[in-house]
Design a protein that fits this description.
This protein is mainly beta. It has one domain (5-108). Helix content is 4%, strand content 43%. A hairpin with a 2-residue loop joins β7 (77-83) and β8 (86-92).
Length: 110
Amino acid sequence: MSAYNTTSASLRCPRCASLAAVKVQFKFGNTWQHEYSLGDRLQWGGNDIGVQGKHHVVVDGIVEESCPNCGYDDEWKVYVHIENDRIARVENATGEFDFAKTGSHYVVVD
């Protein structure tokens, strides 16, 4: 990924299923290496990607390091849920959202 933001999350590793504290890269808001936590409000007004003020947006994300428990280092895709410009939750990707089909890093859900 080029310019992106990050958020911390606790996710289950796709290989060992252990909970892991990880950092997730995503492209939404002012993408300028901002570091967020759950509940934080996104910054806007710079290198913006996406649409500000939407009720619910799902953003394509990726875990940036290997699993601290088993060393899994394959592509670990996740969804970053943004609600009213705040990071609401992060979850492992399920294939429910097709970002390639939309040609975007995000999908406006509501």
